[in-house]
Amino acid sequence: MTRIDLTGLDTRPAQVWGGVRLVPLVRAEPVAGLRLGREVYDAADGRVDVGDGTVYTSYVPHGFVADWSGAGREEAAYGTRLGDGPPATVPVRAPHRRLARRVRGERRLRFLPLHLALEGYLSLHFGGPTVLWEEWSRAALRRGLSPRAEAAYAGWEVPGLAEALRVFELHPGQCGVLVYTADALAAAFVVPHPEDYRLLHPTLVEDLYGELVHQYAYYGGPVPEFTARIRDGAGGIRDLADLRAAAREQERRWAVAHDGLMARDLLETPYAFDRVYRMGSFALYRFLPPFARDGREQHIGELITDHRGRTAYLKTFRLSEAQVRRGYLLRRLASCDWHPGRTAEALGIARDELVRRIRSAGFGALLDAHGLAQAARNAQEG
Fold first, then answer.
1. Which of 207, 281, 334, 352 places its Cα 20 to 30 Å from the Cα of 308?
2. What does the H/E/C string look like for 260-297?
3. How many whole angstroms separate alpha carbon 7 and alpha carbon 303?
4. Contact call for residues 216 and 162 (beta carbons, < 8 A)
5. Are the beta carbons of 269 and 94 closer than 8 angstroms?
């Protein structure tokens, strides 16, 4: 599996609120054998004592419960908050405990939405240099990239999103939505059953969104609404059946245009999938993009697939260009055993430029100034 498969999900015409476009995804039939519910976490659940007097605190808006028992239980819980009020930006750090846990004695799995995906990104080559070349500090070898954090925006801080979700009209059979800001894909959300989506639709305003998404929503103007024009052609529209067929053709054209253009990068990008848990005939994965520097959208995320590889659950997080650059740089360093000289040669740049990029990416603390100076002298003498 290298791509996201949305087989069985059909695109419906978009709904627009200002600069936010919401594209519903519907299923003709729900995914059999899996239900998704919501579970609340107390504020204390975001605090983890790591044993040395340090307390790790994270924002946990809600948890998901995947149920493959066949009982089809529904759970609703609301009201989780961290502190006195909602934060504008949420620091996300590499966690100290497993984020997917099976309920003991039951065929149910608890996991934190998007935290699985963010954990995969934050732990990318987390250990740092595997060989202590002279340019890297000894602290880099001992501690790697720890602590590592990224900033994300809570959904209520994305301009227009809360109001768009409030006025959103749910479609019969709707099991997902694609969220756009200024017509740039911000997030994808898919669940197995229409009742699950109706229950979880309000949670989108509590989810995490990238810096780029917030900027697009804040600075972008209103986007055009979906319109369909049915022309009375040579055959003519003689009755309601002809009108219905013409309307469905407009819906089909919209779906083809949307999937082939607006959602193309999400659906055509090859991802690296990491299986987190197997649940009977279903499997929970998190995935990372190739961190390609070609201008395409780059998403991280998590999904549950059935035995045929079709998507039952999906949630994505769009990376900013700076986050893509960090992932790309870490991948290239790791592929060259963290040797600065070989990495610079592989990138086709000078060693000094590589050092500048490492510092610009926020990894400057890993470098050793004395080692860099010695390596520069050795290069000059050589």
1. 207
2. HHHCHHHHHCCCEEEEEEEECCEEEEEEECCCCCCCCC
3. 14
4. no
5. no
